[in-house]
Amino acid sequence: MKNVTDSFVSLGHWPYAGSFGFNTDILATNPINLSVVLGVLIFFGKGVLNDLLDNRKQRILNTIRNSEELRGGAIEQLEKARDHLLKVEIEADQFRVSGYSEIEREKLNLINSTYKTLEQLENYKNETIHFEQQRAINQVRQRVFQQALQGAIETLNSCLTSELHLRTISANIDMFGSMQEIMD
Hints:
Elements lengths: L1 H10 L14 H134 L2 H22 L1
């Protein structure tokens, strides 16, 4: 193993003039190696890196385009929803106004029908009162007539004798006979 390390160490001591060899000075060879590696990477990796960046760029552009389309669709749907909301609000206002006017109309109809019913009830009450008054008057008349008749019968019974009774009957028969002659 010592021979292998010795050979590398001995390579570091070779002369520079016209020969090829390894530089074992790490500080001096690092920038050179890095620049060579970067040069090789740039030369050979440039196409791959460009392809990766182009693919990434296309995905980002597609995502932006899709987002713009979705945004446009969302704006269109929002406008449709706003139009629909406006129509619904207008219809609701119309229903509200027509509902209020219908309520007012029904209220007036109810008030008018109530007044008519009250008038009918008032008329019925007045007719009932008038009918009851007439009935009461007729009952009073009948009682007065019955009492007068009763009084007249009692007076006649107490004052009427059989002779007066016979004279009244013959006078009535004579009157009846004369009426019949006029009719014939």
